[in-house]
Amino acid sequence: MKYSLLWSAILVLLSSGVCHGAGVITVDVLRGTAGGSVTFTTSVKPTAEPFLALTWSFNGTINVITSAGVDIVGQGYENRIEVDKSTGSLVLKNVTEKDAGEYELIIIPNGGEQIQGTAQLEVVTEMSKPTMACPSGNLIEGKTSVKLTCDADGFVTREWMKDGRPVAPGGRFSFHEGNRVLSISPVNRTDTGEFHCKVSNNISFETANCSLKVFYGPDRPIIVQTPIGAELEESVTLSCSADSLPRATYFWRFRHMLIYGPLHYIHEMEERHLGMYTCTARNSVTGLEASEVHILRDSSTTISGSMSTMVCTVLSLMGLMLI
User: Fold this and answer.
1) Higher-confidence position of 148 and 22
2) Which of 45, 145, 276, 290 would bridge with 185, disulfide CB 3.0–4.6 Å?
């Protein structure tokens, strides 16, 4: 009861004084970490005479501590505060998110004007390391869609990156639940690589990673003949390749024969070797196939035919000139 009367008397005394030194607390906004300590430092210089009264309040109505010969500590602040009675500085320990708000200091010095100052306290929770589960199944280009979820405790902002570059929404990429979820629909071979989720607040940041591998192909095969102009009784090699992940397997069809492997080597080309060769590439993961056709010819026949055509053409022109 006597503390209540003392507190009321002090409030009357403080409210009747003249406010002076509104910037007496050295920072306007103070940031603290949940579970840690913060110090409200003042610019007041110690004096020989103790203050007549000193009070710290929270959000205008809650008493943190009032000191006027006797200390009255507010409920919930016991063993959590330290006050330097020569400067008015306050240390607040074991900070929680509930401590966020405005703190006001009022000092009535001995023989001087009332001193007053305010500061805002922001409290952030230190983050735990975020987690991100990577998809376990095979990702097939153009068929599979994935959702990457980045989980983290506390109030954080999230930023998504791919191989060190920001991921922007649009096209196949979309964000959901405040950037918590990144949706890729459908996946593309260019999505193969490292995705990063960076979570941050006012005091720290952490990163979670996920590696994606997108299977694709085979693309349309490319057939190369070596040498390009091969004649009968010469050796010739046909090679077949196609972009694919994993690597494609190959087989050739020639008439009624199946030839396995990306290379088909003919030691000595004969008439029976000439004709249409079909190379087929197959991807065991995507289940897709792609084929390409190549005509193997005797280049000497092609040249002879061309020369005959040229001779006939020249003779025809000469005949027209003689008419």
Assistant:
1) 148
2) 145
pLDDT at 201 over 60: yes
Paired sense of beta strands 205-212 and 214-215, if any: unpaired
> Does the model's pTM come out above 0.90?
no
Percent of residues in the chain assigned helix, strand, coil, to nearest 5: 15, 45, 40
Residue 321, pLDDT > 50, answer no
Cβ contacts of 133 within 8 Å, gap of 6 or more: 149, 210
Q: Which domains does the chain have, with CATH numbers?
A: 2-124 (2.60.40.10), 131-215 (2.60.40.10), 222-302 (2.60.40.10)
Residue 307 exposure: Cα atoms within 13 Å on the Cβ side:
6
Structure tokens belonging to residue 10? 């002090």
**The two structure tokens encoding residue 85:** 């009675």
* Nearest partner of 300 among 245, 229, 220, judged by Cα: 229
Nearest of 46, 54, 92 to residue 71 by alpha carbon: 54
